[in-house]
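Data card: per-record layout.
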Amino acid sequence: MPNKLAYYNYSRILGYNGTYNFLVGGRGLGKTFGAKKKVFRDAIKKGHEFIYLRRYKQELATARNTFFADIAEMFPAQDFRINGSVAQWADAATRDEKKREWHTMGYFISLSTAQNQKSVAFPKVRTIIFDEFIIERGAVHYLPNEAMIFNNFYSTVDRYQDKTKVFFLANSVSMMNPHFLEYEIRPDEGKEFLVKADGFIVCHFPDSEEFTNSVYETKFGKFIKGTEYADYAVGNTFEDNNENMLRLKDSRSHYRFTIETKNGSFSVWYNMHNDEYFIQEKLPKSQIVYTLVSEKMDTHKMLMTFTDKPLARLRTSFRAGSVWFDTPKTRNTFAEIFKR
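The structure for this 340-residue chain is written out next.
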């Protein structure tokens, strides 16, 4: 049986009564295990159902094959099985398969194929677990318009009944993911809990000293202690949340133009005395707007391509260390743009 530090206790985040619940913390905090424990209890005691969601079919297949491995022993009075893409439970006391009744408790679905679920009804689903919603470096890519695709899927499941809660679970890998960008979630605000959208969104970035200390008592914990990997794996430090190239524009900087990106619009300022650029989210009242998003073009914006001189100049200055940003989000946005 898992020890008391093996899984996250959901009571605190549930106390906020949010609908979209983002739980992002160190590797091994037990986020997924705690979520499974909750939905298993709800299924057995209340007859509720859940959806376990991953981004792609191949991720889902791997997770589905071992879904019961770590949790089944906490429920010795029940047996569990997977029937196709459906999770089921039955009373362990009844071993006669002819008399045995298997109850549906959950569904395994990939977000990439969620559009196929539009005509499917989920009246008993009360929880969606979107596991590993932040992609690890070097792994698969996010879906185009992923936040919108998820909202469509949620609408299909909930049917505007306000019955379904979502748990977005991930390790603290990157702030630059579609869901944080869509809802302007910023872990760098220094708060353990963030509440947004009139309480619809609740975010928890747990700082568990007890969990951290328990990890550092293990052989592997002692081995990684004090390293950058420990900050990422045990703590709650996002790899792309740092102070590199952050500085606010000075009084001698003059506005040049605004660039619209998929992550928002940013103003560009230039200090000719030091040959430095400053890029920030704050926009002036009067603007010259270029857009990198072709579908957002209109009569007030000009399309900017990656080979146009203004962007090429910025890219050259960035490589020379002469471009400064107001926030990690701004820097990370343009770092991705300048990679092209």
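Known properties of this structure: Residues 1-5 have pLDDT under 50 and may be disordered. Residues 254-338 form one domain.

See the next section for split statistics.
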